[in-house]
From TrEMBL:
PANTHER family: RRNA METHYLTRANSFERASE 3, RRNA METHYLTRANSFERASE 3, MITOCHONDRIAL. The keyword GTP-binding does not apply. Keywords: Methyltransferase, Transferase. The keyword Methyltransferase applies. This is tRNA/rRNA methyltransferase SpoU type domain-containing protein. Residues 199-347 form the tRNA/rRNA methyltransferase SpoU type domain. GO terms for biological process: methylation; RNA processing. InterPro entries: Alpha/beta_knot_MTases, Ribosomal_eL30-like_sf, rRNA_Methyltransferase, SpoU_MeTrfase, tRNA_m1G_MTases_N. GO terms for molecular function: RNA binding; RNA methyltransferase activity.
């Protein structure tokens, strides 16, 4: 049996989960720029959480005198819980929960060092008896003390012993949603990425753990950004955020369709590669093998690397328009998990690799 690559995670349902990325116009990119109307929520008020997208410019906040919350029925906690559970809700409000002091710290350090800006954190949830985690002491943010039950509810994990902090943060400016941008002629793809020499393209990646791991790997290997084709899960899903370890706040991410990708390809004269298993089955076109020589031949060429879904692999359009590339494997196994295969591709094809 010959080699293979990604796209064979067996336990992924083809049905999209309830928190799969849902189009809510361009608000994912623009909500952070809209005027923010502060709505004070009194602890006794009832906050309706029905999944409907209220005014996208509305920003829900606690009254200034509230610094401790002990009940999971608190309306602001319900609001934060809905942010974690619903993609459409968090993008309409332009906010997301980041669980864990490590990703919070990495996001803050990146934005301060690379962008020279202060991280836009609405508040930092800490256990009522916990110390401020190391590395977060200097943050000038509002701290809200919460009970163990509230921390467990917000984090979505069974054991909160390792969860030292949860941050309510704004979705970053580096995320752009193009799904409702139908006027392709006037679209300026030069604004999507600071550079477009190496772009990771994800084709219907539904597992948030795989998507987050791929974005983290792209960040680690100095790729310029990620492009999400329709059918991908939300990169700000709580599981994707945990897997990315905050990389979703650091790597420019664009959500669009094939017309947008073709525009990017044409503008920067990019080569389209797609990871695909090599098998004995007759293919309509050959499958190249990933190698050091192959990577070196593309060192100066701008390219998009397309990785397909866990259960179904590449879409038919990806197979048709891309050069197919497989990972040689000495062992007799058909394919690799998409995040494992993607890590190999991203490493081998990384810019300025020094090979």
């Amino acid at each position: 049996m010959h080699c293979g690559c990604a796209f064979a995670s067996p336990a992924v349902s083809p049905r999209l989960p309830f928190d799969t990325k849902i189009s809510v116009s361009k608000l994912r990119a623009s909500s952070a720029h809209l005027p923010r109307t502060q709505i004070q929520i009194n602890p006794s008020d009832d906050l309706t959480i029905d999944g409907s997208d209220k005014s996208p410019a509305t920003r829900v906040s606690l009254p200034s005198h509230v610094n401790s919350i002990t009940s999971t029925s608190n309306p602001f906690i319900k609001h934060c819980l809905k942010l974690r559970q619903s993609s459409s809700y968090r993008h309409a409000h332009g906010s997301v929960l980041v669980v864990g002091d490590i990703p919070i710290r990495e996001v803050c350090m990146f934005q301060a060092n690379k962008q020279g800006i202060t991280t836009d954190i609405d508040c930092l949830f800490l256990h009522e008896e916990a110390q401020i985690p190391q590395g977060l002491e200097r943050l000038s943010v509002r701290i809200v003390r919460v009970s163990s039950l509230v921390m467990k509810k917000l984090s979505g994990v069974q054991s909160t012993e390792s969860v030292e902090a949860i941050a309510l943060m704004r979705i970053p400016y580096s995320f752009i949603d193009l799904e409702d941008d139908e006027d392709i002629i006037t679209t300026d793809c030069n604004k999507w990425f600071p550079s477009a020499h190496r772009v990771l393209v994800l084709d219907r990646i539904q597992d948030p753990g795989n998507l987050g791991t791929l974005i983290r790997s792209a960040m680690a290997f100095n790729w310029d950004g990620a492009f999400l084709l329709p059918g991908c899960c939300d990169p700000f899903n709580d599981k994707a955020l945990r897997a990315s370890r905050g990389a979703c706040f650091q790597l420019p991410i664009v959500s669009g369709n094939w017309n947008h990708l073709k525009l990017l390809e044409h503008e920067f004269q990019m080569k389209l590669l797609a990871g695909h298993p090599e098998t004995t089955t007759q293919k309509p076109k050959p499958v190249s093998k990933l190698s050091l020589e192959f990577a070196q031949s593309l060192a100066e060429k701008p390219l998009c690397l397309i990785l397909g879904s866990e259960g179904h692999g590449l879409s038919e359009q990806s197979r048709q328009v891309c050069e197919l590339v497989s990972i040689p494997m000495a062992g007799e196994f058909e394919s690799l998990n998409v995040s494992v295969a993607g890590g190999i591709f991203l490493f081998m094809l990384q810019p300025c690799s020094g090979f």
